[in-house]
Amino acid sequence: MIPVVSRVEMRAFDAHAIGACKVPSLVLMENAGRGAAEVIEREALGGRPRGKRVVVVCGTGNNGGDGFVVARRLASRGAIVEAWLVGEAPKTQDCQLNMDAFAGIGGRVGRVDLDGSLGGRRAVLGKADVIVDAIFGTGLDRAIEGPLARLIEVINEMAAVKVALDVPSGMNADTGATMGTAVIADMTVSFAHPKLGHVTPHGARLSGHVHVVDIGVPASLWTARSADLLEARDVRAVLLPRPIDAHKYRAGHVAVLAGSPGKVGAALLCAHGALRGGAGAATIVTWPESATALESRVVEIMTARIHEGSELTDQIDAALVHKRAVVMGPGFGTGDGARAAVNHVLSTFPGTIVADADALSLHARAIEEFSAAGGRAILTPHAGELGRLLGMTSEEIEADRFTAARTAAARAHAVVILKGAHTVIAAPDGRVVVNSTGNAALATAGAGDVLAGLTGALACTLTPFEAAWAAVYLHGASGDAWKEANADRGMTASDIADGLPGVYASLLNVGHARGERA
Ligand SMILES: NC(=O)C1=CN([C@@H]2O[C@H](COP(=O)(O)OP(=O)(O)OC[C@H]3O[C@@H](n4cnc5c(N)ncnc54)[C@H](O)[C@@H]3O)[C@@H](O)[C@H]2O)[C@@H](O)CC1
Ligand SMILES: [K+]
Which positions are annotated as binding K(+) (predicted)? Predict the structure, then answer.
C-alpha cells in the first residue's frame, strides 16, 4: 500500500527530513524540482525539451521555489523557459535562492503585476507548450480570490499542457475541494507522497495523472499517514491459493437477503457477483413472490423463502445455517418485514454481514444501529446513502470523504465502503484505505449489487476490512479490464461479475494451474 498523507503530515515529514534527518531544505527542494523536471520532460515534452516553450508560474513560497528549480533544470535541457514570480518578492529563503540561481544561469524572471491587466501575459501563455503551476502547494490556507483567481482562470483557458507541482494551486490538499478557484492540471508531480486530495473524485479531476517523485528521504522513515492507496500486490497477498481439495462449502456459502417483486434482478446480480467472486455457493433468501420469479431463472443459485410474520426470524435462522457471510439489502424493500429481517440478522448472525441499499435506507439517521453486529458488518453506501445515515447532505459527504467515512465507521462500529471514484474503505479502528482501480464504465445499474455480492464472497475467508478493500479493488479492476478491451462505457453489471475470473487470472496467474482449482 502507498501511504497517502494530509497537509499536516506532509509538513511534518518535511520538518523531520530537515531536522532529525539533517537533509538541508535546499537539497529537498532541488530533489523535488529535478524530479518534476524529469517527469515534465518525459511526459509533457515527449522526451524532446529542446526549443519547447515552457512558462513556470511561481508563487512566493516554497512551491514557487520548486518552480524555479524546474525552470533552471528545463532551461539547461534546452527548453525556452520563462519563470514568473507572482508577487513582490520571494517570502522564503529557498525560493529567493532558487530564483537567483535561475537568473544566474541567464534565465528570464518576470514579475506578474496582479493589479495590472494580464493581457501581455495571456499572449505568452498562449504560445507555451507547457505551463507549470508552482503558485501554491501545501501552504494554501485560504480561498484564492481577486487578481490571483483571475490569473488561474487565464491559465485554465490555455491549450498548453498544464503541470501542477505538488498540488494544483487552489486544491485543498486534504479534501480535494477547490478553495476559491483552482488550476485544472493535466498532470501533477507530487513530492514524496500522494496527498489525500489527489485521491478524491474532485481532486483527481483537478490533478490529472499524479506522478510521485522521491525527494531523497526514505518514505519508510515516516509512518504517519491518513490513508493507504491500494496496489495489486496487497490484494494478491490476501488471496490465498486454494487447496487442491477445496470444497464448495469450504470456499464459502453466501446468503443473499435481497429482491422483492420487480427487483429480483438486484438479488440475481448480487448472487452472481458472489459466485464469480469465488464463493462456493450462493442462496438467495427472499419473499415468496420473488422466489417464484427467481426459480425459473436461476441455475447455479439456490433460493430459500421467507414470509412476513411470526415465522420470519425462524425461517431466516434456518436459511442462514452454515453460511459464512450474508449480503442483505439489494432490492429487498423497506417495509416492516424487511426491517425485522435486517435487524434480526444484525443482532444474531455470527458471520460477516454486508449491508447494502435498502438495508442502509432502513437505518436513516441511525447508523449506530449497525453496531449490533459487533464489528462484523460492512456497509456499502454511496455519498447519498451515507448522507442519509449520518443526517447530512451528499454534498457535505463529498466535501470531505475521508472524514465522512472514518466518522461513519467509528459510529457504526463497522467497516464502511464509501463508493465513488477512488472509493474509500474505513475500519472502525481508524484505518483508511483508498482504491486505485476503476473508471467511468462502472457507472452502470446494478454495479453496487455485484460489489456487495463480491464482498460477501471474500468475507467468507477474509476479515471484514480485508474483504471490503479487496472487493473494491477487484470490482474496479474488472471495470479497467473492460475499458482496456472496449471503452469507458457500455459495461453492464453482469459484465463486471463475468470479468472477475479474468482479473483473478491476471492477479494470481492461475489460468494454467487448472489442477489446483476446486
Ligand atoms: N522543505 C520543505 O518543506 C519542502 C517543501 N516543498 C514545497 O513547498 C511547498 C510548501 O511551501 P510553503 O509552505 O512555503 O507554502 P506555499 O508555497 O504552498 O504557499 C506560500 C504562501 O502562500 C500564502 N497563501 C496561502 N494561501 C493563500 C491564498 N489563498 N492567497 C494568497 N496567498 C496565500 C501563504 O501565506 C504562504 O506564505 C510544498 O507544497 C512543496 O511544493 C518541496 O520543495 C519539498 C521540500
Ligand atoms: K502548485
Answer: 63, 133, 169
Q: Which amino acid is at 434?
A: V
Give helix 93-104 / helix 62-76 axis angle, nearest 10°: 20
What is residue 514's predicted lDDT score, i.e. its pLDDT? Answer: 45
Ligand 2 centroid to 75 CA: how many Å?
20
To the question of domain 232-240+247-509 being in CATH 3.40.1190.20, the answer is yes
- What is the DSSP secondary-structure string of 178-206? BSSS----SEEEEESS-BGGGGSHHHHHH
Residue 46 assigned to a binding site: no
Residue 166 marked ligand-binding:
yes
* Cα 188 to averaged position of ligand 2 atoms, centre (Å): 8
- Tens of pLDDT, residues 300-340: 999 999 999 999 999 999 999 999 999 999 999 999 999 99
3-state secondary structure 208-237: CEEEEECCCCCHHHCCCCCEEECCHHHHHH
Ligand nearest to the CA of 206: 2
Q: Is 265 helix (H, G, I), strand (E, B) or coil?
A: helix
Q: Is the CB of 497 under 6 A from ligand 1?
A: no
* Residue 269 Cα to chain centre, angstroms: 24
pTM of the model: 0.94
Evaluate: CB of 63 within 6 angstroms of ligand 1: yes
Express each pLDDT in 180-229 by its tens digit: 999 999 999 999 999 999 999 999 999 999 999 999 998 777 778 999 99
User: What is the pLDDT, as a whole number, of residue 226?
Assistant: 95
Residues 58-69: tens digit of each pLDDT: 999 999 999 999
The CA distance from 164 to 349, in Å, is 50
Please tell me the distance from the alpha carbon of residue 491 to that of residue 182, in angstroms, as a whole number. 33
The cell numbers describing 131, all together, are 505551463
Q: Where are the alpha helices (DSSP H) in 321-463?
A: 336-348, 358-361, 383-390, 394-399, 401-412, 447-459
* Per-residue burial over 404-419, b = 16 or more CB atoms within 10 Å of its CB, e = otherwise: bbbbbbbbbbbbbbbb
Cβ within 8 Å of residue 434, ≥6 positions away? 4, 199, 227, 228, 229, 230, 422, 423, 424, 425
Name 189's bridge partners.
165, 211
DSSP result, 68-110:
HHHHHHHHHTT-EEEEEEESSS-SSHHHHHHHHHHHHTT-EEE
Question: Residues near 359 by Cβ (< 8 Å), separated by ≥ 6?
Answer: 257, 328, 329, 332, 342
For the chain, give every domain's residue range.
Answer: 2-224, 232-240+247-509
Calpha distance 283→456 (Å, rounded): 12
Give me the pLDDT at residue 515, please: 44
pLDDT at 251: 76
* Burial profile 275-284: b = 16 or more Cβ within 10 angstroms, e = fewer: bbbbbbbbbb
Cβ proximity of 370 and 355 under 8 Å: yes
Contact 197, 203 (CB under 8 A): yes
- Grid cell at residue 423: 472509493
